[in-house]
Batch of 4 targets.
Target 1
Amino acid sequence: MFKKILIANRGEIACRVIKTAKKMGIATVAVYSEADREARHVELADEAVFIGAAPSRESYLVADKIIAACKATGAEAVHPGYGFLSENEDFARRVEEEGIVFIGPKHTSIAAMGDKIASKKLAIEAKVNTIPGYNDVIESPEAAVKIAQGIGYPVMIKASAGGGGKGLRVAWNDKEAFEGFGTCRNEALNSFGDDRVFIEKFVEQPRHIEIQVLGDAHGNVVFLHERECSIQRRHQKVIEEAPSPFISDATRQAMGAQAVQLAQAVKYQSAGTVEFVVGKDQSFYFLEMNTRLQVEHPVTESITGIDLVEMMIRVAAGEPLPFTQAQIPRHGWAIECRINAEDPFRNFLPSTGRLVRYQPPVQTMEAAAAVPHGGGVRVDTGVYEGGEIPMYYDSMIAKLIVHGIDRADAIAKMREALNGFVIRGVSSNIPFQAALLAHPKFAAGDFNTGFIAEHYAHGFRAEDVPHDDPDFLIALAGAAYRRYRDRAAGISGQLAGHGVVIGNDFTAVIKGPGGEHRHVPVTIRVAGATTVAVGERSYVIDNSWRFGGIRASGQCNGRPFTAQIERQGLWIRVEHNGRRIEAQLMIARAAELLRTMPFKAPADMSKFLLSPMPGLLVDIAVKPGQAVVAGERLAVIEAMKMENILTATQDGTVSELMAARGESLAVDQPILKFA
């Protein structure tokens, strides 16, 4: 077994690999860029090596620096994680040539299966079901349009070396095919250093099911059941679960057999994933193979009890798989939510900056450890409170994983865990995750890859988050307010006859976005627990929330709950099950007077092009005095490996440029002004 390994990655996956290595008694070496000097994976590793500037093309994507770090530290093997160089054939080959073990498949397998064009051709030869498409390199947008016309719209334009939703577009007509080809090629080049793309038929209303495989150097290949990955936004997975609530045992076995057959064809050694698109009649077609560890591997670990990272290390060290296909268990149900630094209420644009508060829910499961009886909660992360979410890498803050006895139990555990996940300083997609989990069609398992596009076609709004009892949030605000009033009443040295007197009757003023606040009468009484009457409903609340804290847990009417309560000036913000309110509690007369206060509307910024997200201004396509028409390209912002093109919403004339190419922009920072 290895004595020391280097992890050629960062963030959550680097921390994940370190946990297993420590369990196995293996020393670890981290690598880091300028942006990651204070990163969590650097702190957790036994050694750390600086490898360059913040952009990944100058650090994490430079094979020479990774190999040099291995030699300098005496690392015997390198684990690539996912992304970056994990599916780079040349990197795997060079590592092997330098006498270092690559903890992953052989470079020949990566060449055959990691390249989507080559893998599809191989699948056809192996008589694996495949989707109609054009598998050769496409040289121009014009050629892409012609090919798309031949296949028939809609088509999927995909980067050959792609992954993680990068370099991928669906085109429904010639215009989208032409533009999508260029965008995919640029994203592929920036993210993977490979601008090849291919086109295939887009299967409407598909399920995205993937099969986890493991192979060793002794010819053994097994599959570890399936993962349901159909809940996607812009072709990037949002929620994953294992097993799938859709496929039958017969389909599972057939897909698993094909996945094993495909892996055996290339003598696959390590963990890998064969992805299929599955029709409503359970017909399935090979999509691609990811020759690496998947982001969503924890759900497979949870239902099987098998540490996939450990298996990768042992296989790389030459050990045979310690189990046969028949010995692979399947227990309970697991769900993973990707917690990303993005603002769901601003079209999911990236949100970078400092994590002012970061408190994940209480963990009862741990990576690289056995799954406890009855399941639990696991958090895989690479961040910490006070750390930075940089603009240079992907938006993931953490992976939240739960394991339950069945699907309903897992969903309930996940909803409660999301309630207890405190993130401040950057926006996160937690409200969106909460809305998805509460959706009746998700609960019923009735969804496909178009679920988000269908149900949130016009974006995500606060009112899209359902709550079975919205008055409960008002009751929590009332209970928190009463705690503050009780503290004020207990302050010593108050002027006689002028001390704080607490009544029972109040008005909860619920903030509206345009000043149209809602007034709700409430009655609050304290006798051990706090009883809050909202309308005709009464809530008996006993909770552990403390001043200055955010997470509150306790019981309401005898039922346990977890919520977030935070005082912001005179307002009390409450979050539960993805729904958020801001409320003030006051006497009825004060509430009446508040109605008379004028609402100060925000400044008119209609003449400005504002940055919708923090990021790097990579291009300004116009100049002062230039006339533009609606839809015309104005600027391009890049953040977290995603390119965001800003276009004119109406005809106009540019009067002033207010930002320069190469400048780092903040949210709502003016880029240019119109006349």
Target 2
Amino acid sequence: MRALLFLITLAIAFESNAQVKDYIYPNHKNPSMSNYGTTGLIMMPSARLYPEGSLVFTWSHLEPYLRGSFVGYPFDWLEASYQYTDVNNKLYSESREFSGSQSYKDKSFDAKFRLIKEKKYMPAIAVGFRDLGGSSLFASEFIVASKMVGNVDLTVGMGWGVIGKNRVKNPFAYLHDRFKTRDRDTRGDTQGGEINYATFFSGRTASLFGGVEVFLPRMKGLRLKLEYDGNEYGKYSDEFQNGQYVLDRFEGYLPVKQSSRVNINFLYPVTENFHIKLGYIRGNELNFGFSIAGLYGGKDPYIKKRDPRKEIPNKEVYQFVNSQKKENLYRTSLKFMADENIYLQYANLKEETQTLEIAYAQNKYLSQPIAVGRITRILDDISPQSVKNFSLTNLNADQQMYTVVVPREDFIKYDAYKLTNVLEQSVEVIKDDPDAFKKYEYIPGIKFPIIMNKFAPAIRSQIGGPDGFYFGEIALSAHTEVILRRNLSLLAVTGIGIYDTFGELKLASDSILPHVRTDIVKYLQQSNKFNITRLQGNYFMNPSKDLYAKISAGILEPMFMGIGGEVMWRPFEGSIAIGAELWRVKQRAYRQLLSTRRYQTTTGHFNFYYREPNTRVLAHVRAGRFLAEDSGFSFTFSREFRSGANMGIFFSLTDISKEEFGEGSFDKGFFFNLPIQMFFEKYSRGMTGFGLRPLTRDGAQTLVHANDLWSTTYAANKNNIMKDWGDVYD
């Protein structure tokens, strides 16, 4: 406590002699990351969180730990992180023969929940959990408060578990006897993967910790951090012998020396989202690290779009010519819409209702209202004045997604002041007879097949394991789509390896289940010259207003080929969808060409989706039979942000035991997807993403086929269109 008081006094002294004008970044918003990989001081947590929609990658080196973290913020009150730590004072396993020279690799999930927002006289308060469901090497819980005073951020908290060892009696022990002991028996089994609820906030002792983060004046954003560390770096149990806590000693582990509980750190913001840091920790070790943050929650988080609509010259001439003959109106609509990467599929002029009806397809604008707005402007420029309404039907794979009826006069009237909310009141968004557009009188001639090619660099990775931390391949990938009919297509994805380190992988699968995923090493090693990732044919159907179907066949993913399909009921004005899928598949040979292996199976699931329209949170529950012939449930929770980015987690529970599943106990992981357009000035619907399972196992594995119905019919829902209605005048 004396050390903590000294740190606070020092920080106030810094602040008292500084003026606001002395700070280069007086309103610097982003919190800083700790060496542990989450927001915090140096080793200790704080109550700070990044804005929702943020993703942060952190890396730090502090002997004996080399730690990398992915940290996501699906809400402004939740921090969720995945930690991967190289512990170089401990062998990979308790068997020296198996471990060789490989050090221990610890994987863990962390979570922090903000309970109270910071106010004028109230600090931010958060509760957090470290090493949930992992090995429990870093298992801890904490309650922490943070308060800004001028340009000094004060933090104080209490910790349990690994960060609760400085001999303060646990206050929860007065509430119930279960909080008095935190012994080995409550740490979970050796498989990992389970959350050890019995240990939460338990143990004979807790720890007080705290510190300050000072924004230094006249130092271009440099921050000084000082903290009192609650960690006990020697791995102690709660067992008492002769008045002393017992150090866990096991083969291949050396305790860490701690000369001081006071840590110091300097953090420099190279940019607002890229921080580097240097510190002196435990009184005996230098520490270096950095963090890279991406704030993806806003509409245009990085680069504003400079992709204006193309102006049409001589509008009056076009309007006159198009008033003479409907064919002229259809042809000019076809041309000028194509200039905006929007493709006319069908057209019809209803003179009795003064409505121009068109059906279109587009693959450029992630936000559907942008396409609606640009089409409406084009049609207003070229249509005769007798046309009073535009009926715009969006198609995907020749299936009707939605129809927007836009009153021409209202669109123009509200354009000057961008009154999108007023325009919304007069616009009709509906879902009609799914075949109505096929009766339109104009259908432009299209010469099939249409072939589209895209070439791009690609990376294949394998992370973690006794062979090493990271193995990868740099390759050239070719994406080819052949459209045979409007609702029939062939998708091919191939790759040519350029350089890889997969030859260094040696550990074979130890799974007792069919090896539907754990032979990944063999697939990576034997397909490193040329591979066919996918060769999938798709046929789409729209039998009724809210019913969609798909049949697919071919090479469906890197490890399986076969045939199957899915059906989905998705009400246009609702937040739910229900579907089913069934596949007969055969395992592919390791070279990933056209040959197969013996294993074949039938897999299928019932799917339930619920998407909350205001928060854009999606819950997906899958029930059925998985690839290794286990049965059970899979749960996915994700959130989409204004930019189009999304992040989520998943986990699965099936009828195989923990022992059959192997290390990790059950399947789980996280993912995020980012729109490519946020990094460029032009609009694009392309997405890039990253997903990670802590462990690759065979249980609870699903077929990863392309063009699933949920994604394909994304626009077939009124909520998904209107959520971005403010973009209609972009």
Target 3
Amino acid sequence: MANIKKSFNFRSGVQVDDDHLIVDANGAVGIGTTVPTNALLDVYGGNIKTSGNVIGEIGNFTKIIATDLDITNVNLTSNVSGSGVKIGDPIGVITAQNVGETVTYYGDGQYLENIPTSQWIDKDVGLGFVSIYAAGNVGIATDDPRHTLQIGGNNNPNAFEGGVGINSEGGIVATGVVTATTFKGNLTGDITSAESNITQVESTYVNNSGIVTTTDLHVTGITTTPKIEGLNIISQPHGPTETIIVTVAPKTTNNRYYNEGNSNAYYLDGKEAPFLTLVPGRTYRFDQSDPTNTAYPLRFYYDSANDSVYGGDINVVGAQGTAGAYVDLTITGSSPQTIYYDSASAATLLGNAIKTNCSAQVHNLQVVGVLTATNSIVGSLIGDVTSTRSTSDQVDTLHINSTGIGTFSELLATQSFTGITTSSIAHVQSGLGIGINNPKRIVDIYSSGISTVDIVGTESAMIQIGQNYNVTAGIGESVGIVRFGTQDKTFELINGDSGDFNSYIHSGNFVGVNTGNFNWIYGQTNQKLMSLTYDGKLGINKPDPEVQLDVVGVSTFTGSVLITGNLEVDGDLIGGNTTLPPLITGSDIFRQTGISTFVDVDITNIVEVGSIAIGTSRENIIEAGAIDAQSSRAFVSALGVGTNVTSSTLTVDGAIAASGSVGIGTTIATSGADFARAGVPITRFLKLPRVTSSERDNLVALEGGSVIWNTDESRIEFYNESGGNWSYINGTGV
């Protein structure tokens, strides 16, 4: 039938080979199924292949796998997987199925174009390309940028730290190090750095409160910000008083003295410890009324160590930390080039330095090397000269005021006040004053606080004062010497001549009754070891002696002691030989040789002697500490032998040995040991040693006939030496 042109009309459908092809009465075509129910064309169990286009309004697929898919409208219930998907021609849209849902893309999105976001906005300004810009600030390494472009840092523009911020006007805030080969344009604002090294600056104005080091600087004008950032360098010098508000707050890491001195710093007009540049002829008022100043009175010094207080035109009003308190500083033509401001309390390093722009006056001149003048230095040297060595051929001046060492071939000075000056020839006409302007003596030293003079040598140190000076030998003769270190760690006071060595107290014209003492003190404990009062009482280990010699502790005299008055002994006189004067005419209490004899000796307290002979010759005592009473009787109320404690009339600690008979209860013993009348009638019995069987078996040094009472057996037992055992009294063995 393939070659015959026919037309068929099937009103009730057609079916081929049962289930290969079917057209039902409704016009639905089923391929591979006899019940086409899913659509007008229902293909089951196989693939659809076409060389043409598949055109339809809606495509509903569970899964599409294609190498090239060109679809006008796609409604997917699951997913699309393939090497490429093309939607729309030329423009297509992928939309979430429901409103509010999100379409998510995975994988490489490098070819996605024109993707809008909430921040980046496309902008075409007619330059032939489209740019994007952010509606808000852009942050890198921060999710809370407060600058137009911010890298890191915090969200506080007024106290920005730890990052870089750029605003829309071109301002840059960098909290780290900024390095550049060349800076061009106007530098406005603060440059704050420990060190800013700039090779070249080409600018109309330089505005900097710190230090700029540059090889080549070309500036057509110099400007300063108000007060702290220069304090009106180019303003009229004789204007109104400049007021600076002073507060105290903790130091930051930007402080030059961070982790040094006090933990707080002065803040001047809100700036932390700034370096100040002041104008000669003007007065600057440092307002200290803020309560944070209470413990930190502001003062000025010649040096950063606060060793020398600045004595210029200063006016202090009120107590710091209270209303109306301030300190006025007036810069004059005689002010030093540099002044330091700091606290006058124990707290230090709260401030910084001040430049006065006074070129004529130098208070602190620090020279590491040699300072040499072509001609003589003539005129008054005012201020401190601090140098390893200052050498000049000749100095002819009214005053020498130096804290260092000045070395001159010849020194001609009316007065020399401070420091040490050495020269081959030195002439000080009126005197040397240290801390005093008009010395009344050859050398006058004065300080309002503590005055110190240190004389230290690597081996020893010595001060000589005396009457004679040997010009040829260049040494003093007939001198007194204060010396330390000639013998290691030894301090000496020496009279080098044959005169006296006198010590005085209360020798002046001072009237009073509280005259002091001569004291010897051990420095480790501050204990007074010996005190000699002004009225001649010597106390040893007693700081307040009550008599002429008052000693606390044991005293030893190896020689003779002569007492011309009375001897009072409040206690015992113990040991040794004591020689006393005659108490009874013609007799001695003690003699080195011979015998002292007394008719009666009545001792009411304790007597301590070496040996005692009673009723016998002293020669019969054969050992020290013995008592010999062979032919006499001694009567005592209680006697302890081998013990100093008696619990009865006779107490013996140890064995009793008797070469004769022993009688108890009788004075005439009729046997070796007579106990026949021992005790009173109701206690006239003898108790044997009481031991257990175990204790009996541990007895040593037994002899035959030893008797015990066995407390375990309640019987008398005796030791049978021949049998080597214990037996009953009836002779039965144990």
Target 4
Amino acid sequence: MGKRSRRKTFCFKRRTVQTVTVSTEPQIQNQAWEGFTPGPWMESIDVRDFVQRNYTPYDGDASFLEGATDKTLRLWDYLDKNYLAVERERRVYDVDTDTPADIDAFKPGYISEDDDVIVGLQTDTPLKRAMMPFGGWRMVKQAIGEAGKEVDPEVEKIFTRYRKTHNDAVFDIYTPRIRAARSSHIITGLPDAYGRGRIIGDYRRVALYGVDYLIEEKQASRDSVADAGFSEHWARFREEHSEQIKALKKLKKMAESYGFDISQPAKTAHEAVQWTYFGYLASIKSQDGAAMSIGRLSAFFDCYFERDLAAGIITEEDAQEIIDSLVLKLRIVRFLRTIDYDQIFSGDPYWATWSDAGFGNDGRHMVTKTSFRLLQTLVNLGPSPEPNITIFWDPKLPEGYKEFCAHISIETSSIQYESDRQIREQWGDDAAIACCVSPMEVGKQMQFFGARVNAAKALLYAINGGRDEVTGKQVVEGYEPIKGDGPLDFDEVWQKYEEMLDWVVGTYVEALNIIHYCHDRYAYESIEMALHDSDIIRTMGCGIAGLSIVADSLAAIKYAKVTPVRDETGLITDYITEGEFPFYGNDDDRADDIAATIVHTVMEKIKAIPMYRNAIPTQSVLTITSNVVYGKATGAFPSGHKAGTPFSPGANPENGADSHGMVASMLSVGKLDYKDALDGISLTNTITPSGLGRTPEERINNLVGVLDAGFIMEK
């Protein structure tokens, strides 16, 4: 197989430097890779090539699966009784207040004596949360107090007197209009005090290549441009690579503390899962991002499982136990959050999204036996929101797998579905979801996460000339309100809405550019980026909230009669709507076209603004659970939406407005142009099992039919 080499091209100040670097002796690698189909993945880092050449598509059903082992059940029971039960009572089990988090900051931690299948905890104790003050001391201090603990005065001194944090830097730069937008809640949830997340390290690289090779590769990339001449880009490239190398060395040290040498590639399926988890563990030990996806793992793991099963090294029971143990670890990841943060996200999520299934570019589906094993964890361990299991759905997936997905969805409500074809055509067949709906190619791109703007509140600002409909405060200067007491005119309202969006979007993107400039300087994700290519694509993940409310309100203004109601100061605080009008979400082009136009308009305004590090702007129609918080800060609408009440989630129709059934709502959402929302479009539907049929078989078949209908795309 020879030595591996890597050839890359870097450009600085229009000067091109070509390098041929990195070679390692193959002996140990050959042993680890024995039995795998060779290919370019042996010559340079290319996990996708390894997977495509070595995974085994599975067309069967779930009959081969095993239940939880006695060891798994004992471990889960011990964890629940001794840790999870305590956490449920306290909200927070414990906090380490002495040690700033880092990859190698804590001694090895275990759950119990049965915790020996997949090992590794964020701290030295299950559920004990680490503080991550590099993002911002204010939030850390608040969260520690809310957990009933006291801050360490020496640590506080360091991060208030000697070490500038990301949050400090952001607020040093913020403009008055950004501060005004934050306080009025027209922009909410900006990652200006915590980890930005939505960066998927290619954790598979740790298992396939070993850390030593990854270090050599990063050293070679850094040094390949040593003679390129100074520029800000050149300096940052070299400094970031140096930080990545340090992080990889810490990763190796952390694994050694658990008794594992991950310097070389994994030799077995068990090692492949453990090595991969160590890579992910390093990320969650050092970063508290709003979303910490684990990537796309099943087909990769399955290559090792199939090889070891064929060789008699493991049994199917062993394979399931390994996956169960990994998922158990993912369920107990915890970050130190404030109560305010928990309210924004309605709980304590961190979105360890695990993407699965879909098709490869060669036309083969990517369902494997490990795809089934992953779903089986929801049977063996019970339902759970973490990891956020996401299926890349296509009607052409194997029937046995589709039926098992439907069965698990009905029994656990713990699976989400994405359109494989749309994601694959835009992002390739090694894409994964970085949050809830945000796709990217693993190890080759990252996202600057940006929360979302309150597009619904922006409409009320447009009508009131920049005055806040809740507080009455003049937030935006220089805009004229709607005058008179007569019915609202659609063309006038739309013009003012577009003008207000210029201010809102401009303020929003300005804030995002500031946040990510500061994050790269003060809270850089060194280990996650160490598991990326040196040259990557960067996107800026923007988003909007309140789409259905704006669409319905504009439809009401256009097709019915809407009369504003003013308070004693002249502020419009309510509306009287007379007559019928179409609601978005009922497959009615009149309302659906308005919704699509809103998404397109916002995206065009975002694209017109220069992005930090030349990031490619994308947009999501997604609120996660912040729709509740947005609703509390927003007034009444022409559509009839009441002041202070929750928005509908994501791209969903307004609550109760979708009178034509679920398929009609899916068709309405399908009219939103994916090119205007490449960061993802979220539709959340709730179906009671009884609504799907009388028997389990009927329910499964009907749910499969609904999913197939929802993801059929025109050619």
